[in-house]
Amino acid sequence: MATLIELAVLAVSIVVAYVVYKFIKLSNFFDNLGLPYIKPIWPFGSDVKGLLMREHPASTLTKLYYQLEPHKMGGFYNAVKPTIMIRDPELVHRVYTTDFGHFVDRGVTTDPKRNPLEAHLFLLNGAKWRFMRAKLSPIFTSGKLKFMYAEMKKCVDTFIAHLEKTVPFGKDIDMKENSVGFTIEVISSCAFGIESKSIGNPNSEFVLYSKKLFTPSTVMMIKGVTRLIAPWLFNLLRLKQLPKETEDFVINIVKQSFHHRLTTGYSRNDFMQLLLQLKEKGSVEVEEHEKDEEDHQESRFQMTDSAEKEVIELDDGLLGAQVFVFLVAGFETTSSTIYHLTYLLSQNQDCQDKAREEVNRLLAKHGDFTYDMLRELTYLSNCIDETLRLFPPVPFMFRVCTKEYTFPDGTTIPKGTAINIPVYSLHHDPKYFPEPEKFKPERFEQPITRGAYSPFGDGPRICIGKRFALVEIKLAMARLLHTFRFLPGSTKKDKIVFKPRSFLLAVEGGLPMKMEKI
Ligand code: HEM
Predict the structure, then answer these.
(1) CB 393 less than 6 A from any atom of ligand 1
(2) Does the beta carbon of 397 sit less than 6 angstroms from any atom of ligand 1?
(3) pLDDT by residue (tens digit) across 450-477?
(4) How far apart are CA 416 and CA 411, in angstroms?
């Protein structure tokens, strides 16, 4: 017994000594840097809440970002690594775009041998990221998106048919649950090539697995925190971040799908088919006529940044990891945009009328909800942009300095410094967005201060699925506006409460509202 107590005391002393050592090291770092705003935010006191994003968006971290003004740049101790926050949009723009070469990585260390699904684009670093981004970019051109459009339309048909069956009962309808089912159906269909029957079915296998990813268990949380503060301990204990069953679920689908397509010659217009082409031929072909101006910009970035290319083997595990990130990155972000927008339109009937008038006018002109019709929906686009401003699904962005960097004011930060970009806070700053809490789609008719608005990030590492997401959201919203009127629910929500412990901004509980068939 005595030995056990002694061992426990020894273990606690080692941890305390380690944390104190880290703090001393970090405070020296900031003293040398001379940054104006520095605060310890972890692991002491109530600030723990901020780091875990329990109360976000008004988390301690977000409040810190506000307090940062007018200094525009500051730092905080977080016991893991020195972290710089940047609040000046011009500096944000530099990090994302002009000086991207210094901020290529997100700074998350992964071990794909133990966690194969972590070898995905969002987490890859350096040369591996460049290689994978160059390989995957052709999959997301507007030409390829047009091929997938028919699959997307089928999912929207099912979504509308399901709502038409549900709405006449006159009760509140949970728009969150419904949007989640819809966006999972789109991703499972377009990425995995599977009709997952998720619409109106919260018990579908896909819905259950996908939700698990965003409602981490206590064990997952403990593992995550261990990995953050003591990656060496995480590795020593050979821990895995994702539950084994989730990993098996995804890898098996990818393997079976590849096998089925290779042995039967079955083909489908989806990401899986393009990944199969990548596996077989080493690249995805893009015809000149499939590209548009944005695609050219993207490939220019790839070419100028391709100096240190690395070739990695495109095996089932690596390709499975990419499909996995399309699911993780693609369903909660798009569903929250759809339900936030329907909520905002239920509260702003004049904007709703204007958006519906535009949809009906363009439908009369094009005769159907075509890809080209969506491009002309400018007011609806502004409504989507405004929703992403008010409720950015990714409320803060992080990168790491990969090469020593000197800001224009002369502050030099060493390699390894973590960079935080307070996206939510910038989106709600009255200096860049007057009356920031109001839903005003017209503000996007004017140019926006560069660096102040970045729901999809920016620069060479901008969200690769941006165009896919916008087409999906626009198509769903155009069909919804054409068919239904959105009204506030009987239990009217004046203020949205966000999910605790979530990296993404998403509503806690449901989002009840009423819908009337037009
Ligand atoms: C409204 C919907 C979406 C939002 C707001 C969003 C937002 C973001 C943001 C902020 C980033 C980081 C960008 C940066 O570091 O500059 C990102 C990266 C990424 N997103 Fe999205 N996303 C959305 C939808 C999607 C969809 C539908 C997919 C896939 C089909 C997707 C796949 C990815 C991937 C793979 C990355 C990593 C890119 C890289 O590191 O090179 N996203 N997204």
Answers:
(1) yes
(2) yes
(3) 999 999 999 999 999 999 999 999 999 9
(4) 15
The verdict on the CB of residue 461 being under 6 Å from ligand 1 is yes
pLDDT at residue 374, rounded to an integer: 96
Question: Coil, strand or helix: which one is 86?
Answer: strand
Q: Atom 41, ligand 1: which residue's CA is nearest?
A: 461
Ligand 1 close to Cβ of residue 92 (< 6 A): no
Predicted local distance difference test score (pLDDT) of residue 291? 57
DSSP 403-445: S-EE-TTS-EE-TT-EEEE-HHHHHT-TTTSSSTTS--GGGGG
Q: Which helix (H) or strand (E) holds 517?
A: strand 512-517
Q: Which atom of ligand 1 is nearest to the CA of 325?
A: 35
Assess contact for 494 and 382: CB atoms under 8 A.
Answer: no
Using the mean position of ligand 1's atoms as its centre, give its distance from the Cα of residue 358 in Å: 28
Which pLDDT does position 303 carry in this prediction? 41
Q: In the prediction, which pLDDT does 289 show?
A: 58
Residues 85, 422 contacting (CB under 8 angstroms):
yes
Could you tell me if 74 and 82 are in contact, meaning their C-beta atoms sit under 8 angstroms apart? no
Write down the pLDDT at residue 50.
38
ipTM passes above 0.90: yes
Instruction: From 353, 375, 349, select the one nearest 362 (Cα to Cα).
Output: 375
pLDDT beneath 50, residues of the chain: 43-55, 58, 296-297, 299-308
Residue nearest (by alpha carbon) to ligand 1 atom 16: 457
Q: Tens digit of pLDDT for each residue in 309-325?
A: 556 677 778 888 888 89
Amino acid at 385: D
Handedness of CA 488, 489, 494, 500 (dihedral sign): negative
